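[Automated response] Your request has been received and processed.

Submitted sequence:
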Amino acid sequence: MAKLDPAAQTLLDALHADHQSGATELALKTLRDLAEFVRLERPKRAKLSALVDKLRDARPSMVVIANAMTRVQEQLQADDSEPLAALETVQEELTDATDTLIHHARSQIPEGAVIMTHSASSILERLFQRLMEEHVGFSVICTQSSPGHEGHQLASVLNKLGVPVTLITDAQMGVFVATADLVLTGCDSWLTDGHFVNKSGTRLLALAARERSVPFWVLADSFRDSSESSDRVVLEELPAEQLGAPKGQLITVRNVYFETIPQHLVTGRISEQGAFSYPVVPVQ
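Generated structure:
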């Protein structure tokens, strides 16, 4: 495939480099950046298609981005529509899915709830904002989500919204989950074999919640549906330097940023179609 021009490469590099944004936020940002690229550069359709393909494959653990780019390609190919119209259509579809999901998630949150979460989720932030707009009382326990510390970003957002928030280390999950009324997390990919992908540490939180009989809901619209299975999905590994580990000839540092979680460890999935619960399976 031909080399990308500088403007296209800058857009692709920005997608590769962003490890703070949630999957939906990053997908929408990429769609907006792509629309701006089209307005400024007016690329030929073949070059635009090549860039969309590269964006689709850039973040394998975040299938929402791949699915959004696939839908852009479908829009472009189906009726030879204008690129900006195709991008606007996909943005609207993703935004509508998020809004409907938030409506269904709202019904699972009682007044005065203590909500625990892990990592960053733009959908979860939108839900929290909705709760504040409706004057629903709640508080949040969030892990710092090392090594990227996405939880710090969430804590700042909640503070600005006026939500009481307790920020803890990931190692304190088991200590604090017993004080939560429910757990809510985002989802980067929903796989074909009953697993989903999210930031590493989510499986430990699911296990802790199951032990304490705390409901655990996963926010995952249909843009997260993947054709991959848990034994084939690519789990992104970020630079080991993030861990600040000591140097040593025999020290191997790993920073696998995402993991798979079997759906039987959680209460269920909330999508734009509604809230779906799963049978309880004992932890082995």
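Summary generated for your ticket: The mean pLDDT is 93. Residues 102 and 175 are 28 Å apart (CA to CA).
If you did not submit this request, please reply to this message.
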